[in-house]
Amino acid sequence: MNMDKSLGLIFLWICVGFVCFGTHAALMEKLADFKICADKDCSYVLSMAKVLEDYVASDCRYINLRRGQMIYVFSKLKPAEGAGVFWSGSVYGERYVDQMGVIGYFPSNHVNETHVFQKKTVEIPTTDMDFFCA
Q1: Which CATH code fits 28-133?
Q2: How far is the C-alpha of 97 from the C-alpha of 6, rounded, in Å?
Q3: In this structure, are residues 89 and 106 in contact, taking their beta carbons and an 8 Å threshold?
Q4: Model's pTM, two decimal places?
Q5: Interval 65-104: pLDDT, tens
Q6: Domain segments of the chain: what residues?
């Protein structure tokens, strides 16, 4: 009898996990086929940029920007012709602790790159997970 209860609880846990995953997560349209990074995993910071004007995120792939914030830039999408240019990054600074660690895309024309940490870069293909909303 204990085994049946355990299996039932595991089954319930898995089903609830899939339902929650399905209601809060979505694959979104790819913004670009390639991105420029400091390394093959895009784990190192390319540069630092200062926000020039506010930006309100249109969906969960993007981050909100406030004028004056500093942003760590992790990747730069390589746009197809005619497409907008987006970078991915994370807000930096003690003043914005609630946003630190959240990585998302933002339009590059809303920031001024102030310091380049990595001059040598790699171009890698984007994946569906690069544009996953959770």
Answers
A1: 2.30.30.40
A2: 41
A3: yes
A4: 0.72
A5: 999 999 999 999 987 776 678 999 998 766 555 555 678 9
A6: 28-133
